[in-house]
Specification:
five-stranded antiparallel β-sheet; alpha+beta; single chain; three-stranded antiparallel β-sheet; about 220 residues
Length: about 220
């Protein structure tokens, strides 16, 4: 469980270069960048149990290695927290989900990266967005379904719109790092309705159901 959320930070490190040769300045600059990167990664991993992804930018060139710097270079190291957000969502959704006799619903939250089910480690610095969704056929009904009387399908109203409620908490926690919203997604092999459940076209017999989820995108 990730107990503390990250904080936005920007640190500027300068290297004293007076009376030094260019090669010495270059070596000091590269060493300072490597040490700062290692320090931040260790600090953030200790806080969250998972390291942010990084990208190095040398003189405006994204993906350039630190050793591409010269004595006059500016090195920027960018940190992204999409992996941490995905891990937090999966853990939080499972721990707080409705648990029947089998607990299947709680264990059915998956991560989709580029539309494909994946592990958190599949998220890279180039990943633009991902979705966490529940794969059970009745997940939508648990989220927004109504009984014939019009009451929520879930008797315990604290579980009504459960995925949406977690999305709101995630937005409050990580909204400075990513765009987070509740959504419904179509999954491969989606369950098809056996009979009509209303007048809407997507609720007719044979229609694929959509599943409640949370979409997270880079800002």
């Amino acid at each position: 469980m990730i107990s503390r959320s990250p904080r936005i930070f920007a640190r500027e490190i300068t290297v004293a270069s007076k009376n030094l040769f260019p090669a010495q300045v270059e070596a000091l600059l590269e060493d300072a960048a490597r040490r700062e990167k290692a320090r931040v990664l260790a600090e953030q991993t200790q806080r969250a149990g998972i390291a942010p992804t990084t990208e190095t930018i040398v003189d405006g060139r994204r993906g350039a290695p630190i050793d591409a710097a010269t004595d006059r270079s500016t090195i920027i190291i960018e940190y992204e927290y999409l992996r941490e957000i995905a891990a937090w969502l999966l853990d939080t959704l499972e721990r707080g989900a409705v648990r029947g006799p089998t607990g299947v619903y709680a264990r059915s939250f998956i991560l989709l990266v580029d539309g494909t089910q994946a592990e958190v480690g599949a998220i890279t610095h180039e990943t633009k967005s991902f979705v966490v969704a529940n794969t059970r056929p009745y997940a939508r009904r648990l989220e927004v379904g109504k009984t014939r009387s019009g009451a929520p399908f879930v008797v315990d109203d604290s579980r009504y719109r459960y995925v949406d409620s977690v999305a709101k908490v995630a937005k409050a926690r990580y909204g400075n790092f990513a765009a987070i919203r509740h959504t419904f997604v179509t999954l491969n092999g989606a369950y098809r309705l056996r009979r009509a459940q209303g007048k809407r076209r997507d609720r007719q017999a044979g229609s694929e159901i959509s599943y409640p989820g949370i979409r997270v995108s880079k800002l």
